[in-house]
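Hello again,

I reread your note about wanting to compare the complex against the isolated chains. To keep things tidy I'm splitting this into two emails, and this first one only covers the full assembly. Below are the input lines as submitted, including protein chains and any nucleic acid or small-molecule components. They are followed by the predicted structure of everything together. The single-chain runs will come separately.
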Amino acid sequence: MRVRVGVVGAGGRMGRMLLGEVLATGDMELVGAVDRPDSPAQGMDAGLLTTGEPCGVLVHDDPVSLFADAEAVLDFTRPEATVEHAKLAAQGKTVHVVGTTGLEPDQVAMIERAAKHTPIVLAPNMSLGVNLLMALVEKVAAALDESWDIEIVEMHHRHKVDAPSGTALGLGRAAAAGREVDLAERAVRARDGVTGERRAGDIGFATLRGGDVVGDHTVIFAGAGERIELTHKAASRDIFAKGAVRAARWALGQHPGVYTMADVLGM
Ligand code: NAD
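Full-complex prediction:
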């Protein structure tokens, strides 16, 4: 029996990747694709949005029926939509894989309430490599004392509107967790002019923007006479889609609750 999977935000950049990934797996069946009523993707065959081959599933605007029908729904949309989707997931006991970023704390709290009824995987970066990098950064930071300066450098495409990236901040949180300090107290998110010397224990961030870079992150541990650099480079958005599909497969066997990619990866 193939797993019945749906995609919300099907017409989006990530939505199309997710459709392609689900259609390519042998153990999943695409049972629905939803987008906003005003989306240009409305009524289109979901296969045409991704592989160019029709698959017989047409994009529609009814998430209620999708969540009732699917065993798992992949959601890379917008925060306000994702909160509504989480309520539907709770009603339908549907696995909900959330890649949407920019959720406010009260929105996360609403998702946590929904997760009392169904498994929800919440991960601002679904790439398996980035999540492994976070675990490595925490371990390295725990092993080194504050004589090793931590700097986090990220580069993204020219259209990105926020800085540092959510992933860079996540890496900062991982480093801070390793050192058992609070990132908010140690983060230096920008430097300009006469900044004075670097304080021991600071966790610095540097942001680069340009071209079509999908996402590069490097965490530098700079000591006296030696330096460790841990780098992840995303070459394509399909790594996020592959991570989401893996998360859905994993979550189908879980009890209700909020899970992260670290849970999915068993880290
Ligand atoms: P996008 O704008 O290309 O796509 C978003 C899609 O969601 C659009 O098709 C839009 O019409 C649809 N949508 C919005 N409101 C909706 C609603 N109420 N119901 C149904 N569909 C709705 O954006 P994108 O680049 O695909 O990114 C989407 C989200 O995923 C963003 O929050 C982005 O930051 C995040 N993202 C997460 C990861 C990750 O690994 N977790 C990776 C990449 C992007």
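For quick reference: The two ends are 29 Å apart (CA to CA).

B.
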